């Protein structure tokens, strides 16, 4: 469970942002003004101002009050306004793709520096962010947890200290944060459609990642399509938990599952990062793709084109999600964007004779 941060920790970045609107030598807000504006106690204000004085951003002049020091201009002048993209340090192709896509968008946002930042995936949120050191004016966040609930959203709001933020990679409306993400339900139905249109009526969906709003929505998309078109469907849950090595656990589960009789002729993977577990299990069970089993996945085409064989892919379009998130951040729009996507065929689906 995320522990609430002290109120002084919450107030500090807010006062830091206020400081940047003052010139060196200018008188800063009084204690009472700060108490009224931010609705905090005098004790919290005293602690926060004491820290700013210790760091030499404020100086006390007798009974006249607090004044902004020269240090504030030196500190902010050397660091341009920054948008921080915070992503979990997963052992995943997605991390590299996200950070590369973010950096490549720099020419489209010339007034701000775009800076990637990785945090420990063992926690849903970073413990700290370099907001002051990097002069951060906006944040993009891809949470690491299986879910991003209201308590975590509140903790993130305290962490960001009033700095505008947009979430991407998750469309969890309970967070009440603006977000840009894939329409995961649509992606699941598009993957199932690829198998159905090639004559497959007995399908499976492979849940090879931790349960979260994205993976479960993809499963739901497959389930809804199968029900609508009266297809048989088996849901295969590999039981992967957050922090576990998903490809390895998927391999173990599918190597055992494929030893037993199975009726499905096509399978949808909810994530390309862990699909290698299925492909290796098929190889070691002498099950040919697409000859004996057709495969479609949702994920990154940059990864799936390197598989043996390459796999038909419903593209997650992480670069598109990040660009939409940046545009949402720039607009100040508090809404949510769900991106539709495309399927790219790479020869992993066999056309069945339906006569």
Automatic annotation (TrEMBL):
Domain Transcriptional regulator LacI/GalR-like sensor: 192-332
UniProt keyword list: DNA-binding, Transcription, Transcription regulation
Molecular function GO terms recorded: DNA-binding transcription factor activity; transcription cis-regulatory region binding
Pfam families per UniProt: Peripla_BP_3 (PF13377)
InterPro entries named in the record: LacI/GalR-like_sensor, Peripla_BP_I, WH-like_DNA-bd_sf, WH_DNA-bd_sf
Keyword Cell cycle annotated: no
Record protein name field: Regulatory GntR family protein
């Amino acid at each position: 469970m995320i522990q609430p941060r002290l109120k002084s920790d919450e107030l500090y970045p807010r006062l830091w942002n206020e400081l940047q609107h003052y010139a060196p030598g200018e008188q800063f807000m009084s204690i009472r003004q700060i108490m009224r504006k931010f609705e905090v106690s005098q004790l919290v204000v005293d602690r926060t101002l004491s820290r700013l004085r210790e760091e030499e951003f404020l100086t006390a002049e007798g009974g006249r009050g607090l004044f902004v020091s020269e240090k504030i201009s030196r500190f902010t002048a050397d660091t341009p306004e920054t948008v921080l993209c915070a992503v979990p340090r997963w052992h995943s192709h997605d991390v590299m793709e996200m950070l590369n896509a973010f950096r490549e968008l720099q020419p489209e946002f010339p007034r701000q520096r775009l800076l990637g930042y990785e945090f420990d995936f063992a926690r849903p949120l970073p413990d700290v962010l370099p907001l002051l050191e990097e002069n951060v004016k906006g944040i993009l966040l891809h949470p690491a947890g299986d879910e991003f609930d209201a308590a975590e959203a509140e903790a993130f709001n305290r962490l960001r200290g009033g700095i505008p933020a947009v979430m991407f990679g998750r469309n969890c409306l309970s967070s009440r944060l603006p977000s840009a993400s894939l329409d995961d339900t649509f992606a699941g139905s598009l993957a199932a459609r690829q198998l159905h249109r090639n004559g497959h009526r007995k399908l499976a969906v492979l849940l090879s990642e931790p349960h979260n709003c994205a993976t479960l929505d993809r499963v739901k998309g497959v389930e809804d399509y199968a029900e609508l078109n009266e297809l048989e469907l088996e849901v295969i849950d590999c039981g992967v938990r957050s922090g576990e090595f998903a490809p390895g656990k998927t391999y173990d589960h599918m190597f055992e599952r494929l030893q037993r009789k199975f009726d499905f002729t096509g399978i949808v993977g909810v994530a390309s990062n862990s699909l290698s577990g299925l492909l290796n299990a098929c190889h070691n069970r002498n099950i040919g793709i697409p000859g004996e089993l057709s495969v479609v996945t949702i994920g990154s085409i940059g990864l799936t084109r390197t598989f043996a064989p390459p796999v038909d892919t419903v593209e997650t379009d992480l670069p598109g999600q990040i660009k939409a998130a940046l545009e949402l951040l720039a607009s100040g729009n508090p809404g949510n964007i769900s991106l539709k996507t495309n399927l790219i065929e790479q020869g992993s689906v066999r056309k069945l004779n339906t006569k």
